[in-house]
Every structure is written in C-alpha cells, then in structure tokens.
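Exercise 7.
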Amino acid sequence: ELDMMVGVNTSLHETQFTVSVDLLGPGTSTGVSARDRAQTIKALVDPTTKPSDLGRPGHIFPLKAKMKGVLRRAGHTEAVVDLTRLAGLQPGGALVEIMNDDGTMARLPDLEKLKQKFDIKIIAIRDLITFTLERDTIIEKGEIVKLPTEHGEFEFIPFRQISNGLEHAALVKGKWTKDEPVLVRLHSSCFTGDIFGSLRCDCGSQLHKAMEMVETEGKGVVIYLSQEGRGIGLLNKIKAYKLQDEGMDTFQANLKLGFGEDERDYGVGASIMRELGLGKIKLISNNPVKRAGLEGYGIRIVEAVPLEIPSNPYNEFYLKTKADKMGHNLTCYKHIVKD
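Solution. The predicted structure, written as tokens, is:
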C-alpha cells in the first residue's frame, strides 16, 4: 500500500520511487540513525510487515521493480530483486550507490579497486541479463512459413511472449553466422500508420523502407513487436493523439496520461534476436534510446543505420519533437516549427 512519490514521473530513468517510510514501534526512534534505517529496510522485505507498521514520510526511499525484472527494464532496481530471487530469498534488497572520497560517483575502475580491497564479487547488469536469458525462456517460437511480399520473399516466424501472451513476428531474409553483422530493424506496431497509412507519423513508411533495405542487402531481419504507441496500447495512443491536437507534443501527452516517454519492452526484442542467432547487428534506427535499450540486453550493435522518411505537414512537429527531445538522428522535417 505504498503510493508512488509522484503522479507523473519525469526523472531521467523513470525510477519508480514510492513515498518514503520509517519503521514504527519499539526499538526505533526518529528513523535517522543507521540502526533505524537498517530496521526499516529489513521490515520492507519482511512479508509479515503491515502498512500500519510504516510511517510516511520517512528516511528510506523504496523503489518498485518492474515485473519480469531485468528482462523488462535493465535497471539496478530490477537487478537487486532478480539477484535475491535467484538466491532463493525474499525478493527485495538494499540498493546503495558507491561514491569516491571526492564526492563523485564510483565507476567501474573505482569499483574494481574496491573488489580487490575487500575480496568481493562484482557483476554488471548485462551479466544478469545474459544469465537470465540462458536460464529462462520468455518467448515461444511458432512455425516458419514463406511470405512473399511486394518487397521480396521472406521467412515469417511468429513468437508468443509467455509472460503476457503478446504475439510478435520476424521477417527473415537469408542466412548468417554468429559473428556476422546482420541488418536488423526492430519495429513497434503502429495500427494507424502500418495499416491505414496515417500521415501523423512515419511508422508505416519506415516499416516498408526497412523491408526494402533488408531485401537489397540480401539478408537481414525485420522484427515486428506488438507494442502499440511506444508500449501504451491503442486506446491510450488515441488519447495521446487527442492531447496532441490540443497542443501537447507526443512525449508530453504520454506523461499527462501517466506513462513514461517510452514504455516499450526491448527485452523481448533481444530475446527474439538471440533465438534467431543474431550476435552482431547493424541496427536500422534513428533512435538512441532503442540502441541503448538493446545494448543493455547484451546485443552488440556494430553500426546504426539511419532510416529517414520525407516529412509531411502532418508529422513535421512530431519528427521535430523526436529529434529535439529524444536525440533522434533526423534532418527530414522541412519546415522548422518554433517552440
């Protein structure tokens, strides 16, 4: 029964902070001391703790991990929960950032020194992701059929995400070795753009252009993920369109509806890539967040291949927003819209 700290999360990594808490009752005082804080942390991971045992606000800041852990979000919060679960413990733990003596954050070289000094283990989130992917199956692969299209003939492979039943697909062209860089497009479904040819976005055109690029290359993959509206679903996407009609940009609309700027699950895309034997990829994308998201799941991206579609009067502001706010590598909007 811990409420989120804010209704709309605009933090850099959208970390899910709840309201702060202290343990109440005998043996605790103001909650400030190290002993009090340790007692509060122990209470938070104790399944017998009741809401009435915790005072709000307090001096410990709980974080909520995403379901499916690091395969949903490659974050420290999820890593803590996954590690304790793998150890057979109550899922939850204390997350502490390590600082250097000068107040700067300790980076890997600094942490390696601490590892040697105190003889402790050290792992990266990508190690946990790799272990989890090798241990747990999160997708089910369907039958393979030939699919002739206007852009060429592909193998069509459906996948089902075990955790939620969502169905995804891959269009595959050619064969490759594990160490061979392969052209890959990770495309999120867009009902309005892919099917009806909406001019409010460039999604449909990007999908068909990516298929053309793979056909020209002679080998490659287009992965089609059921993640409508950057992961918020069709109904909420149309609500976001309504807010955009009233003056908001695409990211402001998501935040207004209580979502993050990008709710997509890159873990399932990475799992499909692994299933297809993709070790190194040339990612067709203008989106640095997508690149970072896949790299967080251990996918080695050797090249980012741009995919620009000429703008139109209906999507110029949308494209400008993606370039200005999210760093998309776009130069194709012709008429600069002033803020």
